[in-house]
Amino acid sequence: MSAALTPAHQHLSALRGEALLNLPDWSGVRRVNLDGLGLRALPEREAAPDLTVFSVYDNALTGVPDWVWTRRGLRTLNLSANRLTALPAALGDLRELRMLDLGHNELAALPDVFGGLDRLAFLYLSHNRLTALPESLRHLGALTYLNVTDNALTRLPGWMGELRALTELRLYGNPLEALPDELGALDALRELHVMNARLTGLPASLGRCGALEVLDLQGNALTALPDSLGQLARLTTLNLRFNALTHLPGTLGDLRALQTLDLRNSTCAGTASSACRPPSTRWSRGAVRCTCKGCELWTLNDLLRARSSPPLTYTGRSCRFLPGRSPVRSARRVSG
After folding, report:
1. CA 158 to centroid of chain Cα atoms
2. 8 Å CB contact between 286 and 278
3. What's the pTM value of the predicted model, to 2 decimals?
4. Cβ neighbours, 10 Å, residue 73
């Protein structure tokens, strides 16, 4: 166990930025913060073995000094918003890591060395050039947050269903055409974000993600949804904006926790009124209706059937209203 910090060492631990760069000896430093200094290289320093936080966010680094990878006590490592193109295998030796941020770099691949990082809870890989994920990620049993947005992933491996601690998964901005069936095993997942991809369908297994509260599918090529989505008893937000849906499954009427449903620029892609018929008789009772380019859209009042949660906010192509109110009085324009 490391010795308690002396008052002098506590002062050193609070230094950051230019003050830290001007310090010739980092032996008493536990937290290094050199964010936003425009650095192209890092100084060679013999940092103390008990260094726990190292952050060099928003610089111009093309590499990281070897001594960083020998600091085995690191819990937070933030290398985001630099110009890194590769990482060493020594990354896998940082077994105390809880948070690793590699976002906004130029990484085309990652070393397959994540198997020993069994305490890692937050992993940010967004805005790189990744075409695949290393298989060793499947062993991150403590991972609760994974962000791989804005890369070049065309498929997701089935083993992602083994990341059973995940509560938030962000996949948007990748050319994904499908999601693996195995995602249905993520029974702790609360948020799934897959906007601006190329999805043409969803696996029926998503209905088994019983903890899911937010499902954001904006900007895909979906024409239909699986009936199993009606099993998502905790779902509060369903974003289907900018898709090509021609009908909704009647089982969505079972989503009694649903508060926000966004269908703007998604349904009634043409003007044919046949695309706007109610998907189920359970949706057809009541007077709450929205119009879209002159044709009648679905009635949605039954989504509030036996509901004790807050009222549903429904967003159509051009208006927003709460079921149960007169559409004339409650409709108001929203930005498209």
Report:
1. 18
2. no
3. 0.81
4. 16
